[in-house]
User: What shape does this take?
Amino acid sequence: ETVELEPDPHPITILIRFGDGPRDWGTGPQAECMKKAKTPEEMAACVGDDGGGGGSKGDTREARDINVRMGVEVAGYHDSLDVDVISPVASFGLESVVDGWGVGASVLADVVTAASPDIVATASPHWTELRMAPEIHGHVRFDPVDISLAGSLSREPDYLATTVSGGVAIDMADKNVNLALLYQYSHDIQGRTQTPFSVFSTQIDKHAGTVSLGLVLSKATFGQAAFTYVYEDGDSSKPYRHVPMFAPEIASKLEPGFSVDSVNLARLPSAPSSSCPPSACASRARC
Assistant: This one.
């Protein structure tokens, strides 16, 4: 509407009253959603694609309260040493922006095949291995606190890794400051290919804690500082490492039936330290 005013030395007051918008605009769950939104994508999910407050139908707005994400990725690797890797990943997630919760899961597969010079040099045949790594995670928000939990598993023919973690994040100063605490525990079992863990295995336990502080410095700048502490306990030595115990010219002369003392005298002086089984320690033999 156009209003034309004639020249007049006296002031004129024009009253403008805005009409009412859609009844569900900026009220109830939508206002709470917009209050919690941190990114343009989250804000767009609150107001809807049409910018009119999610439409006039309640079921349409409710359908937008939960975001569904699905994805598939495939990565590959190849080099001139005949090492090939293919890694497909599938993921699925549900996120409720209004209620402040989310869950998700993914599964990764690493298929590795190799015949590199180091494999051939040790008279090992061409080999192919598969690693499976499923993962689940979830979080729930009790404004301004967000609690998260996650768990993952990694399974190879000679290695099994299990990890669980939990975290707490707190928004402060009108979401311009974020303090996060994270604890992670891992239990790994290391063995040898084609050998059951019950026959040979070593275990590794790892505890990790992280404290981080995030600051919104400006509209385009975000700063973060973090401190991580890791404590690891267990035997992480490589089970495939070959350490010679005897000189080549001496090894050919050792025959079954030699006494423990005779074998120990023939060993190289730089024998590696290791854990002796009870039977060997009882006879005072060096492992």
About this structure: The CA atoms of residues 78 and 84 lie 5 Å apart. Confidence is low (pLDDT under 50) at residues 49-61. The two ends are 97 Å apart (CA to CA). The first helix runs from residue 29 to 36.
